[in-house]
Design brief:
23 strands; 543 residues; seven-stranded parallel beta sheet; alpha/beta
Length: 543
């Protein structure tokens, strides 16, 4: 395209001209396989990574489709070396296959030199057994997860076709009286089921829980659901009671408060990763029943011990649910190899255009420090500067003005630092929810917010994940976890539930200019830019 929106470069970077008339079509074309790296105002930088290409390949895209997307939207000829690199990288997925040969688990290759190469790696050698023929080697069933982890590290991801056990049968049906799965939810369930295990990526507010319920109805088996916290566990239970044939007696909660093991058991990551005297006493839950399905909610937050135990669950069907595959610890490879590849990914803007999530207006409000505070910031120890800039008192009156501007609208003020949140809550005369707030009080306040009895809540990062507040329409972010893109996605997600009256959601991020606060904010915003959301940048005087 002589006037394409993309400039594709031989170092695997892609530049997207944001103001180009075909920018949106180009962004959608490359989103399935390219990761956004930088998103300033006019030119966004994407990078093509092996993992992105393998995820695209596992989701059904072939090299021809990727190459065509690059050529169609590129302003200049695409470097031939990059096109060749894309084709060769995608061709690596599937040349090694884990499969069953009778009752035996084997690693089979369509390419003898590839098998010879990987078998010479020190960490792979101990995971395999005898050589069955020149293209096949035996693998001990207990090493199914470990060998996939090691193979992806050496650049040869294995396609797992070894199948799954059915687990203990248990009747589960969707109760669709008055509702049905949305088309994209049904496609997500089918995409997961056809692959057998893997990750479904959907925006916050797009009904990931219903995708989980749909998968359970397909499996019709005992199910273990792993969630971020107790509030989330109870929301899952309530949703399953409402949307499926399950009764209260069939759903158990396994958390700090309760230890119930039932046909459908909802456990928190915290309780499973609790360590006593060097051991994890609650990991026995994984073998407590013959689970037919394991669901990982917010899979991008999986703690390391859960990865280790997931390596032993490779014969179980595994469904990961998330709004973003971005992990701040860079363990996306482990999600790919242990939970499974991406099976379905719905761009946020597509779901918004169908009316299933609210349109969003994202605004970055830049505030300036006083001369005295600028000097104090300059002399602050480097590891304390982010907190200093995040908690700058100049943010407080701006928050008040924004909340007043949206008087009566359900509003969340979200932050990281407790003393800052307490100050804001007092100024707004609003209730405060932190990690120290009991589950009972949290649930009560969230319910009052849902019912419209209170319209303002100040919340710490405990509200980042799996909190269902459908009517929240304004979110004001005053501080965050450094440059966490996943956190930005979750916080925007708090206001994206579709509104009964169709109104637009508003997401404000208050940032102290000329500080590390602004640097980290730019990093967080990359994720939203990747989804097609643009930040308007305004000065505090404009509020």
């Amino acid at each position: 395209m002589p006037n394409g929106a993309l400039i594709v470069q031989s170092d695997r970077t892609i530049l997207l001209e944001v103001d180009h008339e075909n920018a949106e079509a180009a962004r959608r074309a490359i989103a399935p396989f390219a990761e956004l790296e930088r998103a300033p105002e006019h030119v966004h930088t994407y990078r093509v990574t092996p993992l992105g290409l393998w995820n695209a390949r596992a989701a059904g895209l072939d090299a021809e489709t990727v190459v065509d997307a690059l050529i169609t939207h590129s302003r200049f000829p695409v470097p031939q070396s990059l096109l060749l690199d894309v084709a060769e990288t995608m061709d690596r997925y599937g040349r090694l296959v884990l499969e069953k040969d009778g009752e035996q688990l084997v690693l089979h290759s369509t390419d003898k030199p590839v098998l010879e190469e990987v078998l010479r790696h020190k960490k792979i050698k101990p995971l395999v057994g005898e050589r069955l023929d020149e293209l096949t080697v035996a693998v001990h069933p207990s090493e199914r997860g470990a060998i996939k982890q090691e193979l992806i590290k050496v650049g040869w991801p294995a396609e797992d076709r070894a199948g799954f056990v059915d687990g203990e049968a248990h009747p589960i049906e969707l109760d669709t009286s008055g509702w049905q799965l949305r088309p994209y939810q049904a496609q997500a369930v089918d995409g997961f089921w056809d692959g057998g295990s893997g990750v479904v990526v959907l925006p916050c507010g797009a009904g990931k829980t219903l995708v989980g319920a749909g998968a359970m109805a397909k499996a019709k088996a005992t199910t273990l659901i792993l969630v971020t916290n107790t509030v989330s566990a109870r929301q899952w239970r309530d949703e399953l009671l409402k949307r499926t044939s399950l009764t209260e007696d069939e759903i158990g909660e396994y958390s700090g408060a309760r230890k119930e093991i039932r046909p459908v058991t909802i456990a928190t990551y915290q309780v499973l990763t609790l360590k006593r005297k060097g051991v994890y006493p609650h990991l026995e839950l994984l073998d407590a029943r013959d689970w037919g399905l394991v669901v990982y909610d917010e899979v991008h937050l999986l703690p390391a011990p859960i990865f280790r135990m997931t390596a032993d669950l490779q014969a179980r069907r595994r469904l990961g649910l998330t709004a973003t595959l971005v992990r701040e610890d860079n363990r996306e490879d482990d999600v790919f190899s242990l939970i499974g590849p991406k099976r379905y990914d719905a761009p946020w803007k597509d779901i918004e255009s169908q009316g299933y999530i609210a349109p969003a207006d994202c605004v970055e409000v830049r505030v300036g420090l006083s001369d005295a505070d600028r000097m104090a910031y300059a002399t602050t120890e480097p590891d304390e500067r982010y907190r200093f800039a995040s908690c700058a008192t100049v943010k407080d009156p701006v928050v008040e003005r924004i909340v007043k501007q949206h008087e009566g609208a359900p509003t969340l003020v979200i932050g990281q630092y407790l003393d800052q949140l307490e100050t804001i809550a007092n100024r707004l005369d609003a209730d405060l929810i932190t990690g120290e707030t009991s589950v009972a009080v949290r649930q009560k306040l969230f319910q009052q917010f849902r019912d419209g009895e209170i319209t303002k809540l100040v919340v710490s990062k405990v509200a980042n994940f799996s909190i269902d507040l459908p009517e929240a329409s304004v979110a004001v972010q005053i501080s965050g976890t450094f440059g966490s893109r996943q956190e930005e996605a979750q916080r925007l997600g708090r206001v994206l539930r579709p509104k009964a009256d169709g109104r637009t959601a508003h997401f404000y991020s208050i940032v102290t200019r000329d500080t590390v606060d602004a640097d980290f904010a730019a990093h967080r915003q990359r994720f939203l830019a990747e989804q097609g959301y643009a930040y308007r940048i305004v000065d505090e005087s404009d509020i």
